[in-house]
Amino acid sequence: MFSNDATESAEIQAQITIGINYYGTKLISSHLLPLIRRDGRIVNVCSSLGVMKKRYSEERIKQLTTAKTMEEIDKFVEEYKRHAKDNTRKDGGFPESAYQVSKSAEIALTLLQAKELEAKGVTVNACCPGYVATDMTQHKGYLTVEKGADTPVYLATDPNPPNASFVYQRKVTNWY
């Protein structure tokens, strides 16, 4: 979405990036989740940049990892957007990067959806495909598209996948 040398303000970057990565996932999910059959699978492609450790204050980590409703996740991203507007992201306990915040929120959303769909037998996971050579990485990634697809495909097709997890290179990874 934005390169490191982007000229757009932090406020604009936050609005657009969070709008696409978090609110976009939330919106499309609200339309698709009712269509998922019993024992279905949902795999949200996130990023290891959504891992919170050392990027957020302990208060912010607790706020997001204990969120029990989408409204609580919404509050988290809206607080980030306010801090981006005021250019006080670090003081507010957030990283500078809107992309990182959007992916942390997307992971939290995914894990909340997993809890909500557990009774229906739906498996829901978030994953990181790795640093893939695509237009988004200006083809600097060290993984081919095929290798990047490995973990999402594994989560969608393996007979015994994890559930309610963040997965990187087929391994459940702590995201906070």
TrEMBL record:
Pfam families: adh_short. Keywords: NADP, Oxidoreductase. GO terms for molecular function: oxidoreductase activity. Belongs to the short-chain dehydrogenases/reductases (SDR) family. This is Carbonyl reductase. It comes from Panagrolaimus superbus. The lineage of its organism: Eukaryota, Metazoa, Ecdysozoa, Nematoda, Chromadorea.
